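Support request from a user on the community tier.

User writes: "When I paste my structure tokens into the form, the page sometimes reloads and wipes my input. The last time it worked, I copied everything first. Here is what I submitted, just in case something in the input itself triggers the reload:"
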């Protein structure tokens, strides 16, 4: 296990130190939730266009439940595992680029979990209708997730675990949403 942690730290330091001051504002912005509201509105429009308002109401319930589970599960892991974020690890202070402060613990990333939840959910709901959609939403999720390493608040393993959990939850909740909406008329 120590070897995995060591490699994770080395990968973090390599990826984090690829950054430079002129790009910090871009990666800070990319990591903000509010900046993605237009994307969420596009998701809502695409769901409406393909399912209608009645079914979208049910789909939204599953999205809200899925994001809540994704976010809260990450919080449980953070406080259960208690792995310090890179920005809070004294051993890394002089070796990393410290762009942003985060909470105390970071395993695993709720940003990665939530964005990969959306990417997975939208792919399973609409991917067969919009062939480019999966590529675009997973690229978006990967960029948001990488921003967390760039900013110094997550290790790569935090991101990988968050992405995996988000992907699985997106698959589960989209399956439940499809089953629920199959019973709704109009």
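"...and here is what came back when it finally went through:"
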């Amino acid at each position: 296990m120590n070897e995995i942690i060591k490699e994770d730290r080395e990968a973090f330091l390599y990826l984090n130190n690829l950054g430079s001051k002129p790009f910090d504002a871009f990666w800070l912005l990319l990591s903000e939730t509010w900046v993605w509201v237009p994307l969420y509105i596009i998701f809502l429009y695409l769901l409406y266009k393909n399912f209608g308002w009645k079914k979208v109401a049910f789909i939204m319930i599953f999205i809200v439940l899925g994001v809540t589970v994704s976010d809260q599960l990450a919080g449980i892991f953070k406080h259960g595992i208690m792995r310090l974020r890179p920005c809070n690890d004294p051993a890394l202070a002089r070796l990393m680029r410290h762009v942003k402060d985060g909470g105390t613990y970071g395993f695993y990333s709720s940003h990665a979990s939530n964005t990969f939840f959306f990417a997975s959910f939208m792919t399973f709901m609409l991917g067969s209708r919009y062939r480019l959609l999966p590529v675009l939403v997973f690229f978006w999720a990967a960029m948001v997730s990488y921003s967390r390493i760039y900013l110094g608040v997550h290790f790569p393993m935090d991101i990988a675990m968050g992405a995996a959990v988000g992907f699985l939850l997106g698959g589960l909740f989209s399956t439940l949403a499809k089953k629920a909406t199959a019973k709704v008329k109009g």
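Agent notes: The reload is a front-end session timeout and is unrelated to the input. The two ends are 53 Å apart (CA to CA). The chain has a mean pLDDT of 94. Escalated to web team.
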